[in-house]
Each structure stands twice: as C-alpha cells, then as structure tokens.
Amino acid sequence: MTVYCLYIFNRYGECLLYRVYKRTYAPRDPGDEQKNMYGMLFAMRNFCQKMSPAQAAESDGKGLTQREVQAHLQYYVAGNYALHYFETPTGLRFIMTTGTQFTGFDVNQCLRRIHARLYVEYVVSNALYTPGEPIQSALFLEKLDAYVKALPIYE
Amino acid sequence: MARRETGRLSWVAKKQASGAHKRSQSVRGMEAGALPAGVGAGSGAPAGSAGYGAAMAVAAAAPGAQASPTPGSTLNILDQPLARQRGEVSLSAYLLLFCELVAYSRNRVSSVVALEARLAAVGYRVGERALEYVCAKSGKPLPRETRILGILNFVVTNLWRFLFGKNADSLKKVGNSDAEFYIEEVEPLVNTFVSVPKDFGALNCAAFQGGIVHGILSAAGFECEVTTYVRDDSSKPGSAEVTMYYIKFSNEVIQRERRLAG
Amino acid sequence: MGVQSFFVLNKAGGLIMQRSYSDRAPRLTQNDYIHLASTFHSMQLLVRELSPVSNARECGGIARMEATTFRLYAMIAATGVEMFVTCDANPATAPAAGAHDRMADFLKEAYISYTDYVLKNPFYEIDMPIKSEPWDAHLIKIVDKYNRVGS
Lengths: 155, 262, 151
Fold this sequence. Notes:
Chain B: InterPro entries: NO_sig/Golgi_transp_ligand-bd (IPR024096), TRAPP-I_su5 (IPR016696), TRAPP_component (IPR007194). Chain B: Its main location: endoplasmic reticulum. Chain B: Pfam families: TRAPP (PF04051). The structure holds three protein chains of three kinds. Chain A is α+β, with helices and mostly antiparallel strands. Chain A has a single domain (3-50, 69-149), classed as Beta-Lactamase (2-Layer Sandwich). Chain A is built from four helices and five strands. A five-stranded antiparallel beta sheet of chain A has the order 2-1-5-4-3, with helices on both faces. Chain A is globular, with a radius of gyration of 17 Å. Chain C has helices spanning 30-49, 99-117, 133-148; strands spanning 3-9, 15-20, 64-67, 70-76, 82-88. The interface between A and C is large, with 40 and 41 residues. Strand 3 (73-77) of chain A pairs antiparallel with strand 3 of chain C.
C-alpha cells in the first residue's frame, strides 16, 4: 500500500505539477499521459454529475446548495491501483494514485489538506508565482514531499 | 486362460467378453451359454489385441468386476454397467444445445406453425429412442404397458423423471371421452430461460416436449396425436401459465382398449 | 444496499440493457443512457492506460468508483461484456464492512443470471439489446435480496 504519483491540473487542462513517488511503470511520454488523465477525469466528472441520484423533496428543510446536492467523484479503484480526485471550486484538480488497500483512511482529506495548507500557503501566496504556470517553488515541493512521505499509507 | 468364478455369471462379465470379442475383430459365434469359450475367444484373439482381451478377461474375473477401460480403449455405451447410473447431464449444456436446435430449425422454416411442427418432429425422434433406453436401462424388468392409463402413468412418472428430473404435474382426462387426455406441466424444462419475442406470436418451444410424448406413445404401440397448448391461469390464485400436452388416441387404440377392458 | 441502476454493455461499448430499481436513480432519456454507457466504456479503456504499476493489458478495469452521493461497482466478463451497478452512498459514513464484497457478489449473481436467461434464450442475438421478461423478473429478485441485506 503506497503512493504512486501526485498531479495537479488547472481548469484549462494544464498540468501544474507531476510528482512521482513509488511509481514502477512510467509511460514514454508523460505529457501524453497527463492529457489522457485530464480528459478521462473530465469525462468521469460529467458521468458522475449525470448519474447523480435524483433528490427526493427535502422534508426536513435542510437547504442544500447545488454543489452539495450534485455528486462529485471521490475515487475509483481499478485492478492494481486506485486514483483519488479532489476538485476545488476554482477548477483546480488534485489527483493522487495509490495502491488498492486504503480502507479506513480518507485520502480525499489528504488532498484537501494539500490544497488548503500547502498549495494555498506556498503557491498562491507566493508573489513570484503566476497562476497557470507549472509549479517550481522548491519550498512547496519540499513541504509536499515531507507531507506525503509522512502519510500512514506511504511505505 | 483366466479362471472365472462360474458362480458369478454376471451380466457385466458377459458383456465385457463380448466387447473383447468385438475388438479382436474375429468372427466367432457367441452363444449365450458359451462363457468359457467367450473368454477363450478373448484371450485367443489375434496377437494385436491379445493383451487387451486378456486384460479384459482378468478384469472380469475379479470379484464384482466393473467395466474399467484399459488404456487406449473406449467403452461402448452397451458395455457400461447397467445398475446405478446417475444419468445426470449439465442443464447448461442441454439448454445451450436446445438453443442451437431452435436456431437451426428457425433457419429452415418460414412460419411459426412450421417451426413448432419441426420442433415436435425432432421431439418425436427423441421420444422413440427414450422409450427403448429407459426400458433397457431400468434396474428391474419393466412390464410392457398395454392399457392406456398404464402407458400414460409410465410416461408421466418414469419417463418424465428420466428426461427432466421430475414428475409431470398432472394427468387429466377430457370430460367423459376415453380417447382424450392431457398432461399438465407448469414449467417445461426446455422453456426455463426462453423468452419469446412478440413477432413470434404464440410459439411455444415446449412443442419439443410434446413431440417427445408423441414419440414415446407411438413407439409403445399407441398411435395418437399430441398438441401443445398454453393455458393462461393467471386469474386463479397461485397459478401462472400451464403448459398442456393434449393427447388424442386413434380409433384403433380405443377399440383395442375396449376389447381389453372386456 | 439501495441498488439504483443496473447497466449491461456489449463488448463494443454499446448499451444493451438498462434498468432502474429505485426512485433515487436519475431519470434520464434513453439517449442519455446510451451516451453514459459509451462514456463508461471509454473510461474503462483509459483507466487501464493510466496504471502507474503495469501496462494496460495487465490492469483490470474499474472495479468500483465512489462519488459523494452514489457508488458504482463494475465488472468485465471474459467475453468483453461489461456490467455496472450504482447504489446509494451516505457521504457522512464510511461504507459498511463487506459492502464492497456484497456488491461484487451482486454483480456475479447478475452475470450468472445473464448467462442463464439471456444466453440460453434461443431468440436472443449476441450483442443486441436484451428483451427478456424472465430475466427482468429474476433481476428484481436479486436486487431485493441485496437490498434487504444491511446498508
């Protein structure tokens, strides 16, 4: 059970970050793979929205926002890996591929923390960073690696 | 020459000896009582199959011998022991074969009625052979049925169990007539997974089973006509569609029945 | 378990069967369902391409997918026929223990009933849309069985 890779995409499909940890099989062209990944997740996201269950009338008066009512993809498990997905309201996508055994551990929570505590702090607040460019901040990468390697699912 | 325990003149050993005889390809008369001669024929067979014949005789000489195939030989269905055959066939295999039968027939007919008639014709051939097989393979000798009720009961119990693993649901007489009967079945085996599309109208693949009944009755000497109907019983509580095989015996059979009844 | 919808796709990714078993299943047009099915089929292919530990041939397709309000379980048969089912998911709680196994069993039972009621029907053509009332009735029985068991 381990972490394979981490990706960050912006809303235009540009890959801002591609970080490899324990990946054992890499394609010849990472750019190709990133395009495939973004496209597939875009289709998957739309699929989830369409398949979102029809909401019965809320009888307890709880007002749910449109965003809360719709289904958002959290993760999928394939034959030999799992992919966790978190999308911010600004269209930023955080993706982590891990092994298949992660029951009891909420990897989406990790992605949210990466966004809130690492990305927002060290990238967005960085005056020298232009949004839309690949992330090259050494401080951010150092903190990110430390965080990921400290995760219980990382071996 | 292998010594045989003459006290155990088992049917099995006799069949094996005749099997060895067949394989040795020598034409010798096999009389029923000439058992030692048969064994001798087996072991005296031409060199090529002598080993086989001797092996068969040795196997037969062992007490309570069963027909065990020697390497390189295939056992004929007639050589297999009679008693205690489970006789089970995989339902999947049977139904897939039936599927192909229906598809094959469909390609060669031009109407639904003709398709049912064709399935019934195939069933007829099955029925003729089924009667012979069941009578030959039953553990105890079966009496030959000469009365209508006798043969119908035989069909509904023994033959249905042999063919489909269960008894038919009921056997009824039509009104006061002596000539018309029907067998009812709630779920014919061949219709287990069949779903007939709308454009085939009233096709019922159980016509195949109706054909089997027809073949059995004809082979037993009771000429008749068998048609397959479906009665829709959804109005009665607890019963769905019931398949009926309607049997109408011919005049000769009725007259014979009257004569036998005295 | 709250089974919502059940889809069957042929090996080319075309939708051959779709049924909804719950009020909570989304109400879409037939075209939408066909579209979703082919999207899912191409997702299956891409998921295998993106495996970080093996090449595409060795990676099995999507086994399950979880969104905030529903969960999806899928299987691919050796013949290329794909089946997937969506069921309720409560975002606040983690899935009950054994829920994944139970839904995998559901798919297995559904597949076995497919091999029985559909493949042994003499009037069914392979890869064509399925119209079999006995199969529909049997599927409803299976869905009820899995709905009764746990959450």
